[in-house]
Amino acid sequence: MQVTQALDVMTAILRAAEHPDIVEVTRYGADTQPGGQTPPGIKIRHQSGTAAMLWAGVPPRDATPVPLPTGPLPPKQRAARILVLAQQLLDVARPEAFTSWELCQQPGVEVPVAAAIRITASDRSVIYLRATAASGGTSEPETDPYPDYQIPQGVQSWHRLSAPHAEPASV
């Protein structure tokens, strides 16, 4: 599976999630494979103006799985929160193109929960989506402004939604 195909799936699922804190989901990066100057990824902009990015990294051999956290994460941990949301959405959507997915940590990357989500495609290729965040125009709330958010039914039928192929943005 090509990285861009995996990003298409994730983009469609994130849009189908209709999370009230997410105001925009866009693709970026000119590269089609990880490891280049402009890695392909997805930018998720939140109500506060903060952006979380899921971007394709080279899968490290020493990445180890980590469990989902048991409680909610504060909004100031945007990178960790988007990884957790991605894992939860994949657990509900169960895209046929993917056979497994798991949060991972890797030595040398200090993060509160996970450094990435490792996705294994049905053709056995591995896509490693790292997460980073960029601050917005306002400060983040201390607690989750949408604690009652439930993943909608549309995530289970995301593949039936009209989600055109997303081309990476030119840089």
Number of domains: 1
The residue-averaged pLDDT reads: 89
What composes the largest sheet? 7 strands, antiparallel
* Stretches with pLDDT under 50, minimum 5 residues: 162-171
Helix-residue proportion: 10-25%
The Cα radius of gyration reads: 15 Å
Care to count the β-strands? 7
> What structural class do helix, strand and pairing data support?
alpha+beta
Order of helices and strands: HEEEEHEEE
DSSP strand content: 25-35%
Termini Cα gap: 24 Å
Strand order, biggest sheet? 1-2-3-7-6-5-4
What does this entry show, briefly?
With 171 residues, this protein is α+β, with helices and mostly antiparallel strands. It contains two helices and seven strands.
What's the structural blueprint in terms of helices and strands?
Elements: H1 3-16, E1 22-28, E2 41-46, E3 51-57, E4 64-65, H2 78-93, E5 98-105, E6 116-121, E7 126-134
Antiparallel strand pairs: 1-2, 2-3, 3-7, 4-5, 5-6, 6-7
